[in-house]
Design goal:
The chain is an alpha/beta fold and 252 residues long. The strands form 2 sheets. It has an 8-stranded mixed beta sheet, sandwiched between helices. It has a two-stranded antiparallel ribbon with strand order 7-8.
């Protein structure tokens, strides 16, 4: 059994330092690194079961508590909870990468992972979007941009409750087609966050996206069930080839 290690890093943002707690499941000789981004009200330990199992197969798992969640410190200003600052936090996780780098996001974290790869220029070998909130419209689910049930939400800055209640609409579907690496969509049977028609339109145009629907574990925001764990493991260990990318192309 691989227990998580924790490491705190300090990141300069908006003239101050934010402390980010990073949870790490470290195999003895990693063959790759999976960076996991939690849901809006989640935290890095949401990936504990996944991290323990993947580490047994040689995959290092890195899962931060983003600002205002879990053990990390909060921003001093409400206006600091913006995409630019989250991207800066994710950029500092490069120090933990070993071998090939994979990225995964759950719920709102899927939107962050997708945005980071699209806008930062960071190269990755694979992407997993776990019930990801690719599109948010208040008309779809008023006052919700998270799939984590209230009873399972991590300790968090109360400011976040107000932010989610007044969330701005966004649509990241155009970005899905711009990330030309093997990508896996995991979709729960009761997922309310995904526009299946938009997904089908996107998948029909591309050949690097795998979609698995109707998974039964309903609380994927905090508890990634055994079915998803083994699907993720199989996807990461499966050989893939792109003529325009090899392991040497990845960021150090």
């Amino acid at each position: 059994m691989y227990q998580a290690l924790t490491e705190d890093i300090l990141i300069p943002i908006d003239g101050a330092y934010i402390r980010i707690t990073v949870h790490i499941w470290q195999p003895e000789a990693p063959i790759a690194t999976l960076i996991c981004i939690h849901d809006f009200f989640g935290c890095g330990t949401d990936f504990s079961a996944l991290g323990e199992r993947l580490a047994m197969s040689g995959i290092k798992v890195v899962a931060p508590d983003l600002p205002g969640r879990g053990q990390s410190s909060s921003f001093n200003e409400r206006g600091s909870y913006i995409l630019k600052n989250y991207m800066q936090c994710l950029a500092h996780l490069k120090r933990f990468r070993e071998k090939s780098a994979y990225y995964m996001g759950t719920g709102w974290g899927g939107a962050l992972a997708l945005s980071y790869l699209a806008f930062s220029g960071t190269k990755a070998a694979k992407l997993i979007l776990n019930d990801a909130t690719i599109q948010y419209r208040p008309s779809l689910h008023p006052a919700e941009m998270t799939i984590t049930p209230p009873a399972l939400r991590a300790p968090h800055d109360p400011t976040l409750d107000d932010l989610v209640a007044h969330g701005r609409p966004y649509d990241l579907w155009p970005l899905v087609g711009s990330i030309l690496i093997p990508s896996l969509f995991l979709i729960g049977r009761h997922s309310k966050d995904l526009d299946h028609a938009r997904l089908d339109q996107t998948v029909n145009k591309l050949n690097h996206i795998t979609v698995i629907r109707n998974l039964d574990d309903e609380q994927a925001g905090r508890l990634i069930g055994i079915d998803r764990i083994f699907i993720i493991l199989g996807f990461l260990l499966a050989a893939s080839h792109r003529p325009d990318m090899n392991e040497n192309d990845l960021d150090p």
